[in-house]
User: What shape does this take?
Amino acid sequence: EDQVTQSPEALRLQEGESSSLNCSYTVSGLRGLFWYRQDPGKGPEFLFTLYSAGEEKEKERLKATLTKKESFLHITAPKPEDSATYLCAVALVFGKGTRLSVIA
Amino acid sequence: GAVVSQHPSRVICKSGTSVKIECRSLDFQATTMFWYRQFPKQSLMLMATSNEGSKATYEQGVEKDKFLINHASLTLSTLTVTSAHPEDSSFYICSAKDWDRGYEQYFGPGTRLTVT
Assistant: This one.
């Protein structure tokens, strides 16, 4: 059974304070690990797909990395507008997300 | 690109009535769409996979007679909540895959259903 576990559940950062979100997974046959951003009351917004261990992808202040057991979403010098819930998924299974709050 | 819309964005209905939610892929054809529900501060739970021209595949524990799914065209899937009850109140989100782009899903903005 595919499983996705995200940590921490919530993270509070000062503006400019870099950090990382974790997503550990177990899956039979990885066909991509996906990161999404979800703002309150809205549908998730696609960020990245990672297909193989060692792969990295970047978008503005976000960088996603992948190993055989987990993925990290690194946030560099975050801004208040980065505040959201970040969801990780494999196949059609989603983690519970990390609620990120960036304080000015 | 890869835009998915949902209608309505919010709906309030009385207990015992039925509600239909539409999900459309606006700029691509989606042979497969997915329906999720999300409770406050919880993650997305897959309800069913909607396949164009065939019956939907429901996840374990989801009542197929209560949550009717129709995928009549390559750009439209509908979810009908029949005989709704207060416990059906939730945030319903659809998604679609654009196989030309990859395996990722593109989500609609969601529909907030409140059953009174």
Q: What stands out?
A: Chain B touches chain A through 24 residues (CB under 8 Å). The radius of gyration of chain B is 13 Å.
